[in-house]
Design a protein that fits this description.
It is a single chain. The chain is of the alpha+beta class. It has 11 helices and 5 strands, in the order ααβαααββαααααββα. The protein folds into 2 domains: 192 residues, no CATH class; 108 residues, no CATH class. Helix content is 74%, strand content 8%. Strands 1, 2, 3, 4 and 5 form a 5-stranded antiparallel β-sheet that branches. A hairpin with a 6-residue loop joins strand 2 and strand 3. Helix 3 crosses helix 6, helix 4 packs across helix 5 and helix 7 runs antiparallel to helix 8. The longest helix has 52 residues. It is found in: Cell membrane.
Length: 315
C-alpha cells in the first residue's frame, strides 16, 4: 500500500481515529474526577548517628547510607510494621502499604517518607506511626537481642561459680590454688628456719620446724592432684566473665543506637496537602489517549482489510 492509500483510509474513517482516543481520554478523566480526593504528607528522617562510626553499629562502610535507606524502606512495608501502624491509626494495612513511598535524599543517609490517603485527618498520624514503628523494628530489636545475650552470659557466670563452690564443699577446701602457693612459700621459710636453728645448735627448734615441714608436704601432696580440676573450673568462670563483659558492651552500644534512633529527635512531619487532580489527569489521560489511538489504527486497518476482501470478485 502507498502513502496515498493510508491517507485515504484515515480520511474515510477519521471519526474512528479521532473518536477512540478522545473517548479513552474522557473515560480516564471521568475515573480520576470521580475518585475521592487524596491528601499526602512528607516526613523527613535524618539520623546521621546511625550510619557509619564504630564497627559495632549496624550500618558501616561505603554502602552504609544505601543499606540504611533500603532497610528502612523494607521495614515500612513489612507485615509486622504494617499491622502495628494499622492498629495505631485504624487504617487498613493494605491501604497503608499502597500509599507509602520512601526515597533517599541524594547519596546521604537522610530519607523522605511520603504517605498519601483519602482521609485527611489520618494522613499525618500514619506517617508518624510508620516512622516510629520502622525505627523501633530496626534498632529496638537489637536491644532485645543484646539483653538476651547478657542474661545468658550472667547465667553462665552463675553456673561456673556454683561449680567452684560445689567443688570446694566436696573437697572441704577453699581456694586451693592460693592455699597451695601459700603453703609452698611457708615451706621455703620453714626450711630456712630449720637450717638456721640446726646451725646454731637449736635442736628442739629444728625438730619443730621439721615437723611443720612434714605436715606441709602432706598438705601439698593432697592438694597437688586436685589443682588441675579446680583450675579448669576457674578458667571456665573467667571465660564466662569475659563473655559477660562483651555482652554488656554490646548491650550498651545497642542502647546507644536505639537512643540515636528516637523518632522525636530524628524525624519531622510536614504539612498535609491535597494531591493535584490535574497531575493525576495528565498522568492518566495521556496514556489512555495513546492506547485509544493505537486501537483506532488497528481497527481502521482491520476494516480496510475486510473491505478489500469483500470488494474482490468471486473466482
Amino acid at each position: 500500500m502507498e502513502t496515498v492509500d493510508y491517507l485515504r483510509m484515515a480520511r474515510q474513517r477519521w471519526w474512528i481515529l479521532l473518536g477512540l482516543p478522545v473517548l479513552a481520554a474522557a473515560v480516564a478523566v471521568a475515573v480520576v474526577a470521580l475518585t475521592p480526593a487524596r491528601y499526602q504528607v512528607t516526613a523527613y528522617v535524618a539520623a546521621p548517628a546511625l550510619v557509619g562510626g564504630v564497627a559495632a553499629q549496624q550500618y558501616t562502610g561505603g554502602q552504609a547510607a544505601n543499606q540504611f535507606v533500603a532497610a528502612f524502606a523494607a521495614a515500612t512495608t513489612s507485615p509486622k510494621v504494617l499491622d502495628q501502624v494499622a492498629g495505631d491509626t485504624g487504617v487498613p494495612a493494605d491501604t497503608v502499604r499502597d500509599g507509602v513511598a520512601v526515597e533517599q535524599v541524594g547519596a546521604s543517609s537522610q530519607l523522605t517518607l511520603t504517605y498519601a490517603g483519602t482521609d485527611r485527618a489520618r494522613v499525618a498520624p500514619v506517617a508518624e506511626s510508620m516512622i516510629r514503628r520502622a525505627l523501633t523494628f530496626l534498632f529496638a530489636s537489637q536491644v532485645d537481642v543484646a539483653t538476651e545475650q547478657v542474661t545468658a552470659a550472667e547465667g553462665d557466670v552463675q553456673a561456673a561459680t556454683k561449680k567452684i563452690t560445689d567443688w570446694e564443699s566436696a573437697n572441704d577446701v577453699s581456694q586451693p590454688d592460693k592455699l597451695y602457693q601459700a603453703t609452698l612459700s611457708e615451706q621455703s621459710n620453714l626450711r630456712q628456719q630449720e637450717l638456721s636453728m640446726a646451725a646454731v645448735g637449736n635442736t628442739r627448734g629444728a625438730e619443730a620446724a621439721a615437723k611443720v615441714l612434714e605436715e606441709g608436704r602432706k598438705q601439698l601432696a593432697a592438694l597437688g592432684p586436685k589443682l588441675p580440676g579446680y583450675q579448669a573450673l576457674i578458667a571456665q568462670r573467667d571465660a564466662a566473665t569475659g563473655a559477660l563483659a562483651d555482652a554488656r558492651q554490646h548491650l550498651q552500644a545497642a542502647r546507644a543506637q536505639a537512643q540515636a534512633a528516637n523518632p522525636a529527635q530524628v524525624s519531622s512531619v510536614g504539612e498535609v496537602a491535597g494531591v493535584s487532580r490535574l497531575r493525576a489527569i495528565a498522568v492518566t489521560a495521556l496514556p489512555a489517549a495513546g492506547a485509544g489511538l493505537l486501537v483506532a489504527v488497528l481497527l481502521v486497518a482491520l476494516l480496510e482489510v475486510l473491505a478489500r476482501r469483500n470488494s474482490q470478485p468471486a473466482p
